[in-house]
Amino acid sequence: GVKIATLRDLLPENIGIARIMPNTPCSVGKGASAVCFDGVSAEHTTFIENILSAMGVYIRTAESNFDAVTSISGSGPAYVYMFINALTKAGIEGGLSPEDSKKLALMTVEGSAAYAAAADYDLDTLTDRVCSKGGTTIEAVEVFREKDLFGIVSAAVKACRDKSELLSKKL
């Protein structure tokens, strides 16, 4: 994205700047955004934060974190859509109709996110609580571990972050 310093060079001195990284779920009030301010009045800061709150959640962070923000919440919906698509296709392969499989996959992701947000457990513990020793879920979790799901996601997020850094330097 365009850095505040770049905008500062183009705009009059007395203009406040808010750099914001929203994501597409903001359009349905379930977004995750980040914002940083430079020279923005308290009144305008409150106004902007109220808008961001209406679109979902937001964090205030340093501009130096925006490449990381881009790679997590800015681009994150695409990663989640890919997972939902994979889960849906797996359900279809298992015999579910495309409509039923998509419905179950979507609500599983939505419900799991809501439960994780409300739970008093970390994400590893939540994963473990769904698994039973010798049960079905642990079989799938072990495949994710063997295929290094965390490594795959980490590498993808890093590639996104690196590209964001590169594009920022070009602007």
Present the secondary structure layout.
Layout: H1 4-10, E1 17-21, E2 31-38, H2 42-54, E3 56-60, H3 66-74, H4 76-93, H5 98-118, H6 123-130, H7 136-146, H8 149-170
Parallel strand pairs: 2-3
Antiparallel strand pairs: 1-2
Task: Describe the overall structure.
With 171 residues, this protein is mainly alpha-helical. It has two domains: 4-67, Rossmann fold; 76-167, ProC C-terminal domain-like (ProC C-terminal domain-like fold, Orthogonal Bundle). The protein is 64% helix and 11% strand. The protein has helices spanning 4-10, 42-54, 66-74, 76-93, 98-118, 123-130, 136-146, 149-170; strands at 17-21, 31-38, 56-60. Helix 2 (42-54) links the parallel strand 2 (31-38) and strand 3 (56-60). Helix 3 packs across helix 8 (149-170) and helix 4 packs across helix 5 (98-118). The radius of gyration is 20 Å and the shape is elongated. The termini are close together.
